Amino acid sequence: MAGERVEELKLLGTWSSPFVIRVKLALRLKGLSYENIEEEDLYHNKSELLLKSNPVHKQVPVLIHNGKSVCESQLIVQYIDEAFSADHHGPSFLPADPYDRAMARFWAAYIDDKLLASACQAGRATTEQEKAEALKQTSAAVETLEDAFKQCSKGKPFFGGDSVGYLDIVLAGLIPLDYIGEAFYGIKLFYHTRSPLLEAWMQRFQVLDAAKDILPDVDKMVAEHNKRKQARAAAAKATSN
After folding, report:
1. pLDDT digits over 53-90, tens only?
2. Has residue 40 got a pLDDT over 70?
3. Packed helices 175-185 and 196-206: angle between N→C axes, nearest 10 degrees
4. pLDDT tens profile 101-116
């Protein structure tokens, strides 16, 4: 249509990042086309575009919309929801009710600050005592999130109700980590004896078309994680010598 604004979207990321996965899911669910720019080496050779676009944290993901950069996965998902309204780009991710919207943001922060943080701590633990304490915190976080699902879903399939919402997208970024944690560290986030609702949620989410398109292959994720783990071990050995 004449005069219609052309939206230019670029996403800086890495395919295996749970934070980048969130943004890709949001873009896919909104039906938005974008240029995917893969950062090949975030440890030693960050691109000039990334450094320019996110000069504070110098990390992915970064969404560049018509030349303007938005950083941090949760903020990017909220931005996508607001910038591409439900009138033209599918249902809103965040609830319309102010209280429900505030609760969604609260639990999204909880996912990163409590659940993800403790699970990562368990994976990095150097002693059995440290691992046990981190796993205890992870278990408590999962149980709390199980109760949050009851509250937010109101008996429906997703945090967002009948359709995928903001919290579903935020938590879905961690699905590949559930397989990685189990394969390498014996850490499984969701299972039926502790969190039957969240385990059922994960199974439902994974069969969605958007999830099939975006969630990375588990075997590829495991191989990549093993490659990085070996590289870190080799670097540590070289340093000690």
Report:
1. 999 999 999 999 999 999 999 999 999 999 998 667 77
2. yes
3. 110
4. 999 999 999 999 999 9
Nearest-5° angle of CA 165, CA 135, CA 212? 35
Q: Is residue 155 part of a domain?
A: yes
**Residues paired with residue 70 on neighbouring β-strands, in sequence order:** 63
In the sheet with 62-65, reading across from the earlier edge strand, the strands are 35-38, 9-13, 62-65, 68-71
pLDDT at 201 exceeding the cut of 90: yes
| Residue 211 counted as domain residue | yes
Domain holding 72, by residue range, is 9-83
137 lies in some domain:
no
pLDDT at res. 1: 39
Q: Does some domain include residue 109?
A: no
CATH number of the domain at 45, please: 3.40.30.10
pLDDT score recorded for residue 3: 45
CATH of the domain at 161: 1.20.1050.10
Question: Which tokens go with 56?
Answer: 């504070």
Can you say whether the dihedral through the CA atoms of 169, 209, 80, 103 is positive or negative? negative
Task: Please give the Cα distance from 237 to 188 (Å, whole number).
Answer: 29
Nearest to 73 by CA among 21, 14, 117, 110: 21
Instruction: Work out how many domains the chain is built from and give that number.
Output: 2
Q: If you ran DSSP here, which 8-state letter would residue 72 be given?
A: S
